[in-house]
Each structure stands twice: as C-alpha cells, then as structure tokens.
Specification:
Shape: globular
Structural class: alpha+beta
CATH architecture of one domain: 3-Layer(aba) Sandwich
CATH class of one domain: Alpha Beta
Order of helices and strands: EEHHHHHHEHEEEEEHEH
Strand content: 15-25%
Oligomer: single chain
Helix content: 25-40%
Radius of gyration: 21 Å
Bound molecules: uridine-5'-diphosphate
C-alpha cells in the first residue's frame, strides 16, 4: 500500500489505484486517462525514469506515487535516473494487487533465515572476516570460490569506484497487535525521510500480542559501508563492464549476486541465476 500524505493507494499500479486516483470505473476509462496525460506531456521516446513513468501511467500517478519515493530512494532526480528502474513495476488494467505475475509466489516458511540455515547446515561458517584482505590465506581451501561481494572491491578499486545506494534500518517493537494492516507501507511523498515501513508479522501472519516494524531510510553510500543497491546508470554500467572483463580472467572465482554482478536482481532472479551457474559448474 502506498501512503501519499495520508491518501492510500494500492500498489503496484492497477485498477484499484486508478479508481482511487481518478474515480473511474472501467479499464477503458483508466487507459483513456493515462493516454490523455501522456499526450499532454509530449513524450515520444522516454529518455529517463520521469519520462518512462509518465508515459506508462500518466502525470498524476507519477507525481504522487513515484517521484518522491524514487528521488528519496536513489538520491537523484528522476530525470537523471535510467528508465529501466521503473520497468520492474507492473502496470495492470485489472483489480489485482499482487506484486508479481508469477504463477507461484511466496517467501520461504520461517523466512530466509530458515532457508540459509538449512543450506549451510554442517558447513563451517566464518563471519566478521574481510575476504579481500585475507584472500591469499584462502587460496588453498577449495578449487573454486564463489564471490558475492562488490566486484570493484575485489579488484582493489583499480579502475575506480562503482556507486551503490545505502540503507539504514530502524526497528521498533510496538505494544499493539496490528500496526498498519499490511506487510509494506510505502511513503511516497518527498518529505517523510523513510521510504517504507515493514510490519514483519504480515509476511507470515503472526498471532503475537505485539508487533515489530522496521523503517527503511535510504542513504548516501560511502566506501567501506554495506552496499545495498547498485546504481545502474550509464557511467557505472560502463565501469562495471570493465570490471566484468577482469573477472572473466579469474579462473577459479565465480562472481555472483547483486554486488558481484552489479545487477538489480530480485530474490527469485538471483536464486535462478545461482542455480544456473551451479548446474554449469557441476
Ligand atoms: N517505486 C516507486 N514508488 C513506490 C515503489 C517503488 O516509485 O511506491 C519505484 C522506485 O523507483 C523504486 C522502484 O520502483 O526504486 C523499485 O521498487 P521496489 O520496491 O521493487 O524495489 P526494492 O527496493 O524492493 O528492490
């Protein structure tokens, strides 16, 4: 659910969103409204995120549900961001509030901690180690290494720094059963400093008498901090390509995941990609 200054809209964009925004009823009316706003904006070939968004869902939705959220999230103007970021958000002319179109959807029972714990059962795990600093001492442990850290860090930033977006989480226990009635509430205005509030129990409906919420604050990222999002604009993408070329020469290292492939992967995509690589290797 998106919260724009107290107005609530369903996400991702669908007939529920359009009906609330414009008071329309049918898909044809929604399409007409979007077409009208698209024509007014005179966009033929979208060159950036703003133009892509307006040509996809019109000016009203762009202004209330995309502009503020996106500028907070990425710390950049929508006119300076690549169009593809917004292409991951579906637009539907049906009353379907699901995020994804996939036939099977869900998250692991007991969450991702349970999944990772099971994958690593019986395997030695060391944390708090800077792999890149102690790489030589690991060389003999295995024939192959899977590296999931930032690719530029692996190469000692020798071609320059890639940019990432950071994130700060603020978690709070609240003495109430149900705080926001939904797992994710997006705050799409520019002024609220966080982008979204997660109420964890709604992912796997809990019967606990209290609840935990987490506010997500997007932040500028500095070298040495945990990187969350790659910034896939042209400049960074070009630099990544050069690093990827270097990575191609590292015979015994497999580079995988959001940071090592500098790619804005969803969870299902990253798992699929890992399985594909594993199949090839094994
Ligand atoms: N987005 C937006 N308004 C929203 C939610 C998403 O404009 O209420 C845009 C924003 O640019 C964001 C992108 O869609 O970066 C992808 O959002 P998603 O929630 O899929 O990203 P996540 O942070 O979960 O990877």
């Amino acid at each position: 659910v998106a919260n724009y200054k107290g107005e609530l809209y369903n996400l991702p964009f669908n007939m529920n969103t359009f009906a609330k925004m414009w008071g329309i009823v049918t898909p044809a009316e929604a399409a007409a409204k979007i077409e009208e706003q698209r024509q007014k904006a005179h966009i033929t070939e979208p060159k950036n995120l703003e133009e892509q968004a307006i040509s996809l869902i019109g000016t009203d939705i762009y202004t209330k549900l995309i502009k503020g959220y996106t500028e907070k999230q990425w710390g950049r103007n929508c006119t300076d961001l690549p169009a593809f970021i917004i292409k991951r958000l579906p637009v539907r002319y049906t009353f379907d509030n699901n995020y994804f179109d996939d036939r099977y959807q869900g998250i692991p029972i007991v969450g991702y901690n349970g999944l990772i714990d099971a994958l690593l059962e019986g395997i030695e795990v060391r944390t708090g180690i800077d792999y890149n600093k102690e790489r030589s001492s690991y060389l003999d442990i295995a024939r192959k290494v899977v590296y999931t850290g930032p690719i530029d860090e692996y190469f000692g930033y020798r071609l320059g720094h890639l940019e990432y977006r950071g994130l700060r989480f603020e978690t709070e226990r609240l003495e109430e059963v149900n705080h926001q009635g939904v797992a994710v509430m997006n705050y799409t205005d520019r002024e609220t400093p966080y982008t979204r509030v997660i109420e964890h129990k709604h992912f796997e409906f809990g019967t606990q008498p209290v609840t935990y919420i987490t506010r997500e604050y997007p932040s500028e990222w500095h070298s040495g901090e945990e990187a969350y999002y790659p910034v896939n604009d042209d400049k960074n993408q070009a630099l990544y390509k050069q690093y990827a070329r270097l990575a191609g020469h590292e015979r015994n290292v497999i580079f995988g995941g959001r940071l090592a492939e500098y790619k804005y992967y969803d969870m299902d995509d990253v798992i699929e990609s890992a399985l594909t690589v594993a199949k090839k290797e094994i």
